[in-house]
Amino acid sequence: MWLSGGRMASVGRQSFGSCFRVLGRRGCNTAAVMPEAAGFEGVSDRSDLQDFSVCSSDSFWAAVARQRLSWIRPFHTVQDCDLSQGRIRWFEGGKLNVSVNCLDRHVHTCPERVAVIWERDEPKSEVKLSYRQLLEMTCRLGNLLRRRGVKKGDCVTIYMPPCPLAVASMLACARIGAAHNVVFAGFSADALAERIRDAQSSTVITVNQGVRGGKVIELKKTVDAAIQSCPTVQQVFVAMRTENPVVMTAKDVAMEEVRGHISNQNLLTVLTCEDTVCEPAGMDSEDTLFLLYTSGSTGKPKGLVHTQAGYLLYAALTHRYVFSYHDGDVFSCVADIGWITGHSYSVYGPLANGGTTVLFESTPIYPDPGRYWEMVQRLKINQFYGAPTAIRLLLKYGDKWVHKYDRSTLKTLGSVGEPINTEAWEWYHRVVGQGRCPVVDTWWQTETGGICIAPRPADPDAEIVPGMAMRPFFGIKPVLMDTEVYGSSCVSLCIAQPWPGMARTIHNDPQRFTETYCQPYPGYFFTGDGAYRSKEGYYQITGRLDDVINVSGHRIGTAEIEDVLNQCSAVAESAQLFGFSQFAQRLPKTRSGKIMRRVLRKVVDSELEGLGDLSTLDDPEVVQEIIQGHHDLL
Ligand code: 6R9
Questions:
Q1: How far is Cα 206 from Cα 239, in angstroms, rounded to an integer?
Q2: Which residue puts its alpha carbon closest to atom 18 of ligand 1?
Q3: At what angle do helices 164-176 and 131-147 cross, to 10 degrees?
Q4: What spacing in Å lies between the alpha carbon of 145 and ligand 1's midpoint?
Q5: If you take atom 12 of ligand 1, which residue's CA is the nearest one?
Q6: Which ligand 1 atom is at minimum distance from the Cα of 443?
Q7: How many Cα atoms sit within 13 Å of 108 on the Cβ side?
Q8: Where are the beta strands (DSSP E) in 442-510?
Q9: I want to staple 472 with a disulfide (CB 3.0 to 4.6 A). Which of 6, 201, 476, 581 is the partner?
Q10: In ligand 1, which atom is closest to the CA atom of 339?
């Protein structure tokens, strides 16, 4: 691994060589692109539709919201937003229930369709649940929560690995009107405690132990340690993921009935004493659906607030149109449910669309580097959505792990989380997708709720340029602003008008929301990322703005330089910094696989006091290694 700050000649777009057309149909009618758009006047092709969605955003979103969601009471106002004030409200007057939209309406039409496939850590032991079964599990949990005093407006913290019970817990909260706060089940007790305290949760849901990559993780013990410093917590529901008993305290409530002969290891036999019918709460469009914490570069993590209707609509629409999801497809997003990617594309998007979604509990290399592709073959996966960090890792293990398995069911490959370098993109496209599956590089953030910029391969005339051909999604109007970062000018990506999926505020700190996202360019949403736009109107994301470097007066994003470095076979991954060159064994990464460059920069600048929020760091020891390495270098 190479941390470099040397001079770089000619890096940039010319390195993105190949380009292909997915479909060559020009001018096909709009209804084929998007049936919801059939009635829009003056819209005859995909480009008209994009313009319409931005220029007539009220008409666009009203039509889509009416067709895609099932409402208890219709909305009277499509949007009431003023970005400069940080005011974002969609579909006011409307009432709905998110769990009804994700479950009941599909149970009415296709109760036995598979809703979730739980790809357990133990290979080849998947468990399938139909929409009817998932609704029953959700109702039982909803009744339990209600009976134990959880009310509309409360916030329940969920500390669980991806599994049907975690999804049912999220949906049970939605059913009774509580908000959920899913904390990635790999976070430390301190990180968990900080998030429980900020969310003021009185209820936590967890499992006795997690299992990941063949290793047992003591989740319940971590909760025990965390709640020592969380006075609000009154009860902890504990389900059994393994058969090992854990010490239960006065606050703990076992979720299983005690039945000696039933193995609870599959987490499916819980709460058989609860009723399978649970009256859904009627929620206002702008009631909170969930909080999700994301790390701030300084200070404490931010609890971003997403609300009911707008979020669900946006997750559903992007899931359908970015991935070309069709009824009957098996969709697999391998992100953990503790990240926004898991929320929007393992849970809410696919379920709102009546889809079949895979919940992946394991790692890309357990029991071997063929895990993903063996799973694709066994579960007949049609869309696979993963992170560049995993693709880069698997690429180094060689093609044989991919070739071993049949991937003919795959139709679309997705990437998210970081810029995907050309080498990884090409490998993903050529080796994994056999050159026939479009790769959709999707740009978005916890704050945006769903994908904002991505190719849409099903569109007529769709073109995908590796690492770059990214177009705004319907209703998204990106703008590039000149900005100054660390004394050099950069182009910063903003979004010019609100869209339904965006976060509404920061829990407990609306001021910070406005300052961070709305004030840098009043009237615009500030993303904090840099971008280029080509003459065709395609966007390329260059990385976090505070990671931009200045080489001989050229502004160059970290993505471009890392892209070139990664093509050297000795370099597994790279992170580019100002005027700094060093080899390191490992890079500091978040638990979702993103390189934490700001930490590297602080080390280089010898600002060890101001490393910022490190709670999302995967292995804090790496920071010590790098500090030591840098020290030795000086
Ligand atoms: C969905 C998610 C958001 C940040 C974002 C950007 C980076 C995400 C990307 C990408 C380049 C892509 N990012 N997708 N950069 N190309 N396709 O990852 O949310 O965890 O909040 O991170 O991730 O820097 O600002 P989140």
A1: 6
A2: 417
A3: 60
A4: 34
A5: 443
A6: 17
A7: 6
A8: 453-454, 463-464, 471-472, 478-485, 488-495, 505-506
A9: 476
A10: 20
Atom of ligand 1 nearest to the CA of 541: 11
Ligand 1 and 130: CB distance under 6 A = no
Q: Residue 460 — φ and ψ, nearest 5°?
A: -60, 140
pLDDT at position 550 is 53
CB 63 within 8 A of CB 75: no
Residue 568 burial (C-beta neighbours within 10 Å; 0-12, 13-18, 19+): exposed
For 321-339, the pLDDT digits (tens) are 999 999 999 999 999 999 9
Residue 251's Cβ-count burial label (10 Å; 0-12, 13-18, 19+) is: middle
Q: What percent of the chain has pLDDT over 70?
A: 84
Distance CA 630, CA 634 (A): 6
CA angle (245 as vertex; 242, 250 as ends), nearest 5:
125
**Contact residues for 521 (Cβ-Cβ < 8 A; gap 6+):** 481, 494
Q: What is the mean pLDDT of residues 440-446?
A: 96
Question: What is the per-residue pLDDT for 599?
Answer: 78
> Which residue blocks in 472-613 are alpha helix, DSSP H?
510-513, 558-565, 597-604
CA distances from 320 to 48, 441, 624 (A): 20, 15, 44
pLDDT at 21 over 50: no
Backbone angles phi, psi at 3, to 5 degrees: -100, 115
Q: Which atom of ligand 1 is nearest to the CA of 442?
A: 17
**Ligand 1 pocket, 341 CB below 6 A?**
yes
Query: Is pLDDT at 627 greater than 50 in this prediction?
Result: yes
Which of 541, 558, 591 for mutating ligand 1's site (highest number of atoms within 8 Å of CB)? 541
Find tokens 């500091």 and name the residue: 588
- Read off the tokens for 369: 């580097």
User: pLDDT tens digit string along 574-599?
Assistant: 765 544 456 667 878 877 777 777 77
pTM to 2 decimal places: 0.88
Is-contact 431 410, C-beta < 8 A? no
pLDDT at 181 over 60: yes
Does ligand 1 have an atom closer than 6 angstroms to the CB of 446?
A: yes
Residue nearest (by alpha carbon) to ligand 1 atom 23? 417
The closest of 236, 210, 216, 99 to 158, measured between CA atoms, is 236
* Rounded alpha-carbon distances, angstroms, from residue 18 to 425, 430, 443, 564: 11, 11, 20, 16
Determine the residue of 334, 444, 453, 562 to mutate for testing ligand 1's pocket, defined as the one with the most ligand atoms within 8 A of the Cβ atom.
444
pLDDT in tens, 224-260: 999 999 999 999 999 999 989 999 999 999 987 433 3
Neighbours of 559 (CB within 10 A): 24
> What is the ipTM score, two decimals?
1.00
Please list, in sequence order, all residues whose beta carbon lies within 8 angstroms of the beta carbon of residue 305, skipping any fewer than 6 positions away.
Answer: 288, 290, 291, 503, 504, 505, 506, 507
Strands (E) in 28-80, as ranges, are 77-79
Q: What is the mean pLDDT of the chain?
A: 87
Interaxial angle between packed helices 189-199 and 219-227, expressed in degrees from 0 to 180 and rounded to the nearest 10: 60
Atom 17 of ligand 1: nearest residue by CA position: 443
Q: Whose CA is nearest to atom 24 of ligand 1?
A: 544
Helices (H) and strands (E) in the chain, counts: 20, 34
The whole-angstrom separation of Cα 436 and Cα 333 is 20
